[in-house]
Please model this.
Amino acid sequence: MPEKIIVAGVPVDTRHFIGGRRVASPDTFDDVSPIDGQVLGPIARGGPAEAEAAIAAAREAFPAWAATPRAERARILHAVADGVEKRIEELSAVETHDNGALLRSHRRGVMPRVAHNFRFFADWLLTLGHDDFETRGHTNHVSWDPAGPCVLITPWNAPLMLATWKVAPALAAGNTVVLKPAEWSPLTASLLADIATEAGLPAGVLNVVQGYGAEIGDALTSHPDVRRISFTGSVPTATRIAASAAANLTPLSLELGGKSPLLVFADADLDLAVDLAVEQYDNAGQVCLAATRILVEESVAEEFTRRFEEKASALVQGDPREEATDLGPTIHTRQLEKIDGFVQRALAAGARAVIGGHRRDGQYYAPTLLTDVAQDSEIVQEEVFGPVLTLQTFADEEEAVRLANDTRFGLAATLATGDRERADRVTARLIAGTVWVNCFFVRDLQAPFGGSRLSGVGREGGTWSFDFYCDLKNTVTAPNGWNNHG
Ligand code: NAD
Model:
């Protein structure tokens, strides 16, 4: 296999990164661009041997990194952020070729946010206090100890963004990392390894292994030396990982799928509500947080639908490298078929497509809005992960809350209402890790992030990330018994 491939003019090493060295595998798999189906190149296809080597490297590097003073760890993470900022153009171009998301979003939003992930957790680390308190003359000293090697497994829909949301706090906490990016978008994780090396991160502190989850995943998640597993991806994979981690009771953080509602009340600013609804097609709908179930109060449903249709029909779908494009392709032909399967079954069951309802050329799926859908139908209950929304109506607040909460998920919910008291009442009753009121996707890294029910286990963000990535230790010291005191 070639050691490097050139993607959008950028050389990308396609091998694993283990113990500070590039390591090839006997086998490879093809990385395909969703933009035009072009093969970008062969990627190292890791298995149990590479998992074992990467975990061994992380284990070996752990004591020195854990003992590195916090300020020095923070300095290196800021240097990683500098490296990301210097390479925003390259990272954006490679990510867009690899996963098909918009180039302009990568440049202006996603990659600056990647750098921010490192800066934020580097700075937050320095704010973590050591609690001290007294019990009958004894002191209690609570410290945030690094946990050990962490396995971080990430999906393809926002590859570097979601990887660094885990890598940054794990490293800041003093842990070492084995990162396994998704096989459909493996490239920017490899560039991150280059950037981290240039920033002075010691060998073995960050390791990157490539490969199919089914082939390398179990060896990573069942390993007794792994002290934390943080996973973002689908529910079926999460259940396999949880079973695999159970052998060692390895603590897990799981950020999973959703079927989140957007509740539009008659008292809402209807144009704002329509904007919020159309925004759900971002990243061609491949967003875990997307509010894919639009619930509208009956009295404004007709007008809402008219304005939505007008606005959504103006969306430009096409090459994600073009500035004017609003919606790119879906990640993979398999994903495209999955999306179309959901839509065709819904149409066969009596749903009506207000817009879309079909594939376009290549890997593109037309933005779709389906009405006449039953609450217990597959299209309302299951995550599609594509540009497919449903629209249902409700008679009153009670019904709105009932419909909103009536799935197995609980990742997010969005409300459009002009009545603050209503917002407070409804928010209090919604089951969701994040609720947005008259806004969407405002995410501060200080906030707890995660899902309820099948949308996840645990919360990350701010101190919650350090709760997860650290072993908290309470040291109780007696006031006497010293022979070298004073
Ligand atoms: P996926 O579960 O198929 O794969 C995610 C990762 O798990 C990939 O790296 C894959 O290689 C790996 N994997 C697969 N099988 C494995 C195994 N047996 N052991 C270990 N690892 C394994 O998910 P996907 O299709 O890549 O991503 C889409 C899903 O991710 C959607 O459900 C979406 O909602 C969810 N998601 C959630 C969030 C969140 O923050 N809650 C964010 C983005 C995406």
Q: What stands out?
A: The two ends are 66 Å apart (CA to CA). Residues 230 and 336 are 27 Å apart (CA to CA). Residues 153-157, 162, 180, 182-183, 213-214, 217-218, 221, 232-234, 237, 240-241, 255-258, 288, 383, 385, 411, 451, 456 surround nicotinamide-adenine-dinucleotide (CB under 6 Å). The chain has a mean pLDDT of 97.
